[in-house]
Amino acid sequence: MANDLNILIKSKIDQSSEAITNLNNQLSKLEKKMNKLKIKLDVDSKDIENAVKNATNKAKSNSNVKINVFDRDKLESDGRQFFISATNIVSRVKKEFASMGDVNVNVFKNAKEQVTGFTAEIKKADGVVEKLNFDMAKIKTNKSLQKGFVFTGQTLLDKNAGDNLQATLNKLQQYQTKLNQIKASFSSGSSGVIDKTNLGILNKEYNSILSVLENLRKSQTNLTNEQKRNIDKQINSLKELGKAYKEIDNVKNKKDSTENEIKRINNSLEKLKVNKEKVFADSRVSAEVDELKNMEGQYRKGAISAKDYAMQMDNVRTKTAQVSGELRNVNKDGYSFTSMVSLAAKKIAIWAISTNIIYGSLQQLRLGLTYMADLDNALNEIRIVTGKSQEQVDSLGASYNRLAKEMSVTTKEIASTSADLYRQGLSTEEVEGRMKSIIQYAKISSLSLEDSNKIITATANATKESVTKIIDIFALLGRQNCPLAA
């Protein structure tokens, strides 16, 4: 085993006075240790020579460094911190900055162990470390000049950099979530922006903001207040732009809806005119039609609601049915008001004499295509006259079927009579009430529902009396023409 250890020392030395002092101390310690061992120390003499030369020059340079002179009054007026004398400098510095946080003082000395400056490291409660640097100086106080230390600068180290970065990433994610919600509001098919050009503008602005967020996320830097304000402004602008474009779509949709409603009303009017030339020539009907045309213009301008416009169409239907009924009741089958009353009285008399005869017996619903076709035509006529939906008419047909069973008549008879009553402009409630009265009169007079309807309608139009009162009068006339009934 070799007893000799060869060590080659190659110089690469920090040339500061502090570093040279430390090097000398370490070489002395190393020399003492090597004396105890059989070690041959080979030194690169040239490098050592150069290092010593440089260290010597550095030491001379340090010894000739000029110390700055400051005026105490000037330092105080400028608010610049300073300490006079190096005595107990560490404890004095800690005491001075204790209120700011935990204080640690790093002192710098020259080769002569003289303090040439220090750094006060202050760790604050928020994790920020503030380093305050002080260099040796001469401070002029009154007429004397004293050695001391003057503040030369500071450095801030943020120990919470990781937490702050995460907070920034969280904030960026909040922005993106809000941005995505806005995009969903204007891009959804049912409630979003319909116009493709406007939708393209919104998507372009969305992508622009999204790109800003992505770049900030990649930069790994904290957000400034100005950046936050700009992002908020852009997102809010996008939101308001989306609302504006949706409102434009709403106005356009409303306009389309208005034109569709006008088209529907006009189609209904044209259907109503079929085979009713004399009815629409009547001044009462034409007046309602003129008002409908006037309201069409108002509705197009938004001056009235769709409900008001549709109600006027109902007024046209009502007046048309009323005039149609009057014309039919006066002319059809040669009935006049006088003949109607006479026929009614005679039928009541027959009923009074034939008390043993049961009228209005329950009839079975007729089977066959003819019967079904007639019933369907009657219900379809009700749908056209009233403007009811097919579902509503089907429900009405079911109720007529129940009434037919209760009153011992056929569903087709009730549907046909109801269609005629609707054409007279009666409401649903009025039709139901008059229908029961017509069936009642038909049963006690042995008339068909059609004839009973003609008599009661003609009488009601001529006298303006209630149907109930008319039936009572007919019954009284019947008793007066047939004393045996008493």
Spell out the blueprint of helices and strands.
Elements: E1 6-9, H1 17-35, E2 40-43, H2 45-63, E3 69-71, H3 72-78, E4 82-84, H4 89-97, E5 102-109, E6 115-123, E7 128-141, E8 144-158, H5 161-187, H6 196-219, H7 225-273, H8 277-281, H9 283-301, H10 306-331, H11 337-353, H12 369-386, H13 390-407, H14 411-423, H15 428-445, H16 449-463, H17 467-481
Parallel strand pairs: 1-2, 3-7
Antiparallel strand pairs: 4-8, 5-6, 6-7, 7-8
Helix pairs in contact: 5-6, 5-7, 6-7, 7-10, 9-10, 10-14, 10-16, 11-16, 11-17, 12-13, 12-14, 14-15, 15-16
Name the descriptors.
486 residues; alpha/beta; TATA-Binding Protein; rod-shaped; six-stranded mixed beta sheet; single chain
In short:
This protein is α/β, with parallel strands linked by helices and 486 residues long. It folds into five domains: 6-63, no CATH class; 69-158, 2-Layer Sandwich (TATA-Binding Protein); 161-253, no CATH class; 254-325; 335-485, no CATH class. It is built from 17 helices and eight strands.
Structural class: alpha/beta
Total strands: the figure is 8
Overall geometry comes to rod-shaped
The value of Rg in angstroms is: 55 Å
Mean residue pLDDT: 77
Word description of this protein:
This protein has 486 residues and is an alpha/beta fold. It has five domains: 6-63, no CATH class; 69-158, TATA-Binding Protein (2-Layer Sandwich), CATH 3.30.310; 161-253, no CATH class; 254-325; 335-485, no CATH class. The protein is 65% helix and 12% strand. It has helices spanning 17-35, 45-63, 72-78, 89-97, 161-187, 196-219, 225-273, 277-281, 283-301, 306-331, 337-353, 369-386, 390-407, 411-423, 428-445, 449-463, 467-481, and strands at residues 6-9, 40-43, 69-71, 82-84, 102-109, 115-123, 128-141, 144-158. A hairpin with a 4-residue loop joins strand 6 (115-123) and strand 7. Helix 11 (337-353) packs across helix 17 (467-481), helix 12 (369-386) runs parallel beside helix 14 and helix 14 (411-423) packs across helix 15. The protein is rod-shaped, with a radius of gyration of 55 Å.
